[in-house]
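Same chain as my last thread, 413 residues:
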Amino acid sequence: MLATYIPPFLRPSASDRKRILRRCLAVAVLPVASLAIALPASAATTAAPDAVSAAISTGTLTPAAPSGTNGWYRGPVTLNLSATDTVTGVQRIEYRLGTAAPFQTAASVNAPFPSTLTGSVPVSPEGTTSIGYRAVSGDGSIEATHTLTVRIDTVAPVVTWPGIVDGHVGHTATLIPTRTDPAPGSGGIFIQRMWIDAAEVTPLPVATSGLAPGAHTLSVVANDSAGNAARYDQTFVVTTSFTDLDTLIAGFVSSGDATADLATRLRATLAEAKGAADSGRTTQAVALLNEFRSEAQDGLAPGPVRDTLVGDARYLIDQLRGTLPAEPPTGVTVTRVPGPNPIPAAAPSSGSTNFPGATFRVLYFSATKGFRHDHIPDTAALVEQWGQQYIDRYEKFAASWLFQRHSALQLKL
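reply #2:
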């Protein structure tokens, strides 16, 4: 070992050596905790992140299944909320109706905070509503927002007939109802049933030429995608005029229900009667209209065309004489009626049955666009029944199924 030479003027004195030895002994016996050394901020250990909330919330709806059709509710809904935090407890549960709305308190308590908190909120806004909810733990931490969507439509569609003005419509009009669903409705308005003068008919546009002059009632039941339904009974009076009657004659010629020669004679007589009426010669106008009636009765076979022309001429005669019957009150009455019930979920079908010798398999597929008829489950069950009942006949031909709009099914057997 090489000895290190220390100049005398750098050597510690005896007293200095004792002082240094005492300091070393003191350091050797100190607790470990007292040896911590302060480090600069840049060298300090990164602080632990804030604790993540332990709150867990759930939300359910009452009623659980939509009360209307196509996923819509036809009445108010209750949002049931529950939150659990077994560490710091639950301080409150918050909710909002709409993504831009501020959060509101559904339930809250003061400390000490329980591990579980529940609350409920009525939901009634019409249309589609995005609901957000979250829990706040006892330590103030906020849970991530949960969302669910509720669609509510409680308003029945509105039906009007713009062709009917002040309760009257001419004899050459076509009545097509205007259907609207008050916003924010579910849309998809469908005319379910229709009656003319209490006789049920297929829902189609109504040509007033097929109605006798006088009072009539047109009724429809309309429903929307949510299943809200209302019955509209529209009472109105069909009128006619010289112009309407001339237009009807031209239409009957175009449809082949009247000959051109007969139409020429009828229109000439009608024009002469109109000229007499316009000049105030009522008696002559009535006589010409009676002549018109005779020509129509002699030239046309019994049926709707002859009845229409004769009936209109009689109406004009009564109008000129001032002997038209008193008109009944006109207008529309609205009655809320039950709509279609939600279609229950289809029960799982059993496994396919193998038929020895079968030469083909059939895939039955049903699809809709918005509105769903109540008959769909029954139709599906009927097709399945036919498949089991007539399997031997099916092997002799190719079955063709075509679904048209509103699931109209055609079977070529």
